[in-house]
Structure formats: structure tokens, C-alpha cells
Design a protein that fits this description.
The structure is a single chain. With about 110 residues, the chain is mainly α. The longest helix has 22 residues, at about 55-75. The chain is flat. The chain has helices at about 1-20, 30-50, 55-75, 85-105. About 80% of the residues lie in helices and about 0% in strands.
């Protein structure tokens, strides 16, 4: 169950990062509210997952999901550049997430 909470926390991190971008520096009410609510939910789910998962594993995977997901949303939704170097960096992050999961004992 901890892994499910962790993945959901990572997905919520992607959501809050996107809406933070859309909030225009917290000047728009709806995107700002979505940012804050999903941030709290993401942290709450991460803390629940950390009850049984090692700190390094949980935090690395949470931030990795958020980083790669935010990168993907930036490219797909916001039209940001998908240069070969940025794609390689994303692939390295995904590789790190997979290795961290495979090395976890929980």
C-alpha cells in the first residue's frame, strides 16, 4: 500500500507544479488554491508512505516522479523544448527511480 501512496503523492506533485506555473506567482485564485491543496495532499501521502518505506527511497522516487512528470507536462502541455540533452536527463532520472525501487527492501 505504501508504494501506491507514494506514486499518488508523486502524481500530485506533478499537478501542483503545473498549477503553480499557472498561478502566475500566486496571483490567480483557482490555480493557487489547486496548488496549495494538491501540495498538502502530496506531502500527506508521502508521509504515510514513509511510515514503511526508507527515507532515501521514498523521497528519491517522489521527487523523481515529480521531476520527470513536470518535465513531460512542460513539453506536452506547455510546449517547452524537448532537446536531446533534456530527454537524456529525463531518461537518467527514470533510470535512477527504477534502480532505487529495485534496491529497496520494503
Amino acid at each position: 500500500m505504501a508504494w501506491i501512496y507514494l506514486v499518488l503523492a508523486g502524481v500530485l506533485e506533478i499537478v501542483w507544479a503545473f498549477y503553480m506555473k499557472k498561478s502566475a506567482g500566486f496571483t490567480l485564485l483557482v490555480p493557487s488554491t489547486v496548488t496549495i491543496v494538491t501540495m498538502i495532499a502530496s506531502f500527506a501521502l508521502l508521509s504515510i508512505a514513509m511510515r514503511t518505506l526508507p527515507l532515501g527511497t521514498a523521497y528519491t522516487i517522489w521527487t523523481g516522479i515529480g521531476a520527470v512528470g513536470a518535465f513531460a507536462v512542460g513539453v506536452i502541455v506547455l510546449g517547452e523544448a524537448a532537446t536531446p540533452m533534456r530527454l537524456a536527463a529525463g531518461a537518467l532520472i527514470v533510470s535512477g527511480i527504477v534502480l532505487m525501487k529495485l534496491s529497496s527492501t520494503a
